[in-house]
Amino acid sequence: MRTPRFCPQCGGSTLQRGLPPGDTHERLICMGCGYIHYENPKVITGCIIEQEGKYLLCQRAIAPQAGTWVLPAGFMENGETTEQAALREVWEESGVRAEILSPYSIFSVPKINEVYIIFRAIALEITGQYGPETATCRFFAPEDIPWDSIYYPAIRQILERYICERQAGVYGIYVGNDDTGMVHFIH
Amino acid sequence: MRTPRFCPQCGGSTLQRGLPPGDTHERLICMGCGYIHYENPKVITGCIIEQEGKYLLCQRAIAPQAGTWVLPAGFMENGETTEQAALREVWEESGVRAEILSPYSIFSVPKINEVYIIFRAIALEITGQYGPETATCRFFAPEDIPWDSIYYPAIRQILERYICERQAGVYGIYVGNDDTGMVHFIH
Hints:
NUDIX hydrolase (chains A, B); 2 domains; nine-stranded mixed beta sheet; Ubiquitin Ligase Nedd4, Chain: W; homodimer; NUDIX_hydrolase_dom (chains A, B); three-stranded antiparallel beta sheet; Nucleoside Triphosphate Pyrophosphohydrolase; alpha+beta
């Protein structure tokens, strides 16, 4: 959320940065009622869906960056598991009913406070019906992927890495951030 | 955060649940300024630190549930990667400087809107100095772990699962929730 200007608990307007007792991080604190405002990273969940060596991408119909391509992915909501959230996003953005195979990435983007939890999945049903956020969606062979029109750098990096591994025939878990990504092969 | 009673942007007190245009979930919306309140799950990061077959647990010094035992873990903060957050929590709660080996769990607890991202790690330095949240910390052999005094069910489940795998000599990624947990072995 945007930085609060008023206390969401008492409506007061005297919010100040300070270190709550016993805390390790400064927070916005209401001088009126003592409310402490915690801000935490958000989780984005989605899937890499492969079919005969091709990968499902969705073209954004809405701002920001309408016309760019993304993996089907979006913010995890309260009350969901990461897997439910990933499959819901796939359904909403691509009209594909999918099944999760395994986790693929835990990828942090600290400068925008996001964590990308991306699963490998297979398509069970492709309905061709999707929500208003998507202009169209398509399966792309690696050489046809519009790399320069992939919206999020994190998504591009995760997908590139995945395709390398797929070609090598060995999958790991991709953990990292914009600066350094590392594939953990689990033994 | 607790449900707002006042709009954090305009201070108004007329917040109502409704479906914003194009959204798939109901949100709390300010009837005054149009502010939309999004709530998302929080990430808890931490580590399973093993040394000669023993596991590091911390005894809580503070409410809730002072006296219970936990893995060193806590809420991920803005501006961090999951790995940085996990190592910071280990440091604060156990005074151990650790190094991450690999991710171990992506475990959801949807009824309290939390996701536990737990890594395998090794201790590089054990200082014996820890923050005020911890009464003491110790390495436990599996048969000595105070299972009935582990605070969070999710932590108990993740650690139990890990010890089984360690005994089998094969590690996976533990993905699931309170009802169903599944170890994904990545090939």
